[in-house]
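Pipeline run #58 for the internal structure catalog. This entry was flagged by the ingest filter as a single-chain record with no existing model, so it goes straight to prediction. Upstream metadata was stripped on purpose; only the residue string is passed forward. Reviewer on rotation: M.T. Logging verbosity set to normal.
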Amino acid sequence: MPISKSDTESFAEIKAVADALSPYIESASTGDGAHIRTAFYDHAHIVGSMGGTFYDMDADAFRDAVQAGGASPDVEHQIAWVDISGPAAAAKVEFVNWLGNRFTDFFVLYKHDGVWKISGKVYDTHSGN
């Protein structure tokens, strides 16, 4: 069965969402807060817990937290899934050994003027929550 134009476009959009997550993923290993900030809209909101402490941050506070946490050069990740509907998307990314933790991150993204960015994130550290 031949590949349709909509199949090709769908795969291209999944890749575009994965590319939008790249600064986030790269910053897990480098600890580069400025780089991770580029993945987020200014209004973005981050919610989750770590070690039993609840965090409710904006994108700038999250940037600072990543910078303060430092590099995790042995971190591994996997994009578990991406779901897209028009300019809206959701993604799940798993991390192992980011600052010695396992994280599951759920992202909500939006495509504005042809650019995908993270609008919000909720996460679980799988320990002490």
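catalog note: The chain is about 35% helix and 45% strand.
catalog note: The first helix runs from residue 5 to 30.
status: ready for reviewer M.T.
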